[in-house]
Amino acid sequence: MAKKKKRKKPLISPGMKFFLIILLIPASMIIYSFVYFAWEDLKSIIYPEELSEIEKIQEGFDLKIPEEYIPIYIAAGEKYNVPWTLLAAHHRVETRFSTMDTLVSPVGAEGHMQFMPCTFVGWDHPTCAGLGKGNIPESEKTDPKVIEKYGGYGVDANGDGIADPFDIEDAIYSAANFLSKSGVQDGEIEKAVFRYNHSKEYVKKVLYYYEQYNRVGPLLEREALAAID
Questions:
Q1: Residue 138's CATH number
Q2: Most buried of the four, 22, 26, 105, 196, by CB within 10 Å?
Q3: Transmembrane residues, as ranges (predicted)?
Q4: Whole-angstrom distance, CA of residue 63 vs CA of residue 208
Q5: Cα separations (Å) of 101 from 34, 64, 98?
Q6: Is residue 222 in some structural domain?
Q7: Following DSSP, what letter does each residue of 141-197 receive, concatenated?
């Protein structure tokens, strides 16, 4: 009579198999996530053509000029005879292209291009003195008629009846208006920049970025306008 063969015990019990499966699910998800994000980073290196032409032109800049602002700089510069690259330089220095946590400075400068209220509305306003914060009612701060009355530099660029330093178009056009009347229209760029902020260090920073942007200005302008067309 033949002896019955003993059944070999499985190396891993069913319970252990189940435990390992449960354990491997999150591990697999982690590995998948790691591979996915690593591939996304790798693609940005392997396929540089995914960068826009404007981004490629600005490679090496510590902070790129946002594409959507360039047409506004150009239009404001043409209207007030101010180099658009100078407007970009001011925007870069003032609020890092509007990426600051707040667009109101500790001394009261407001908006994308950091105007003191009295400069924006006009120093002839009865509440204006000192550094220029003033005590201008909110209803008057953005009223083009009030600004005209008191000789301010605020501009209603988009024709909505409001001159608002927190509106990107109004702010850039207002900066162009100020710089033009402060000396740029006569070719005195450094003088105008100093009038914008009475600091030699400020002038040095603005002129640094102005020269940097000027070197690629024609290329950036061509690409920005082509994108609009």
A1: 1.10.530.10
A2: 196
A3: 20-39
A4: 13
A5: 31, 18, 9
A6: yes
A7: HT-HHHHHHHT------SSSS---TTSHHHHHHHHHHHHHHTTGGGT-HHHHHHHHS
26 in a structural domain: no
Each residue of 96-154: pLDDT tens digit?
Answer: 999 999 999 999 999 999 999 999 999 999 999 999 999 999 999 999 999 999 999 99
**Residue 167 lies in domain:** 59-228
Q: Would you list the DSSP string of 76-100?
A: HHHHHT--HHHHHHHHHHHHTTTTS
Q: Per this entry, what is the length of the chain?
A: 229
Residue 14 in any domain: the answer is: no
Q: Which amino acid is at 66?
A: P
Other C-beta atoms lying within 10 Å of the C-beta of residue 201: 8
Q: Please indicate, yes or no, if residue 5 is contained in any of the structural domains.
A: no
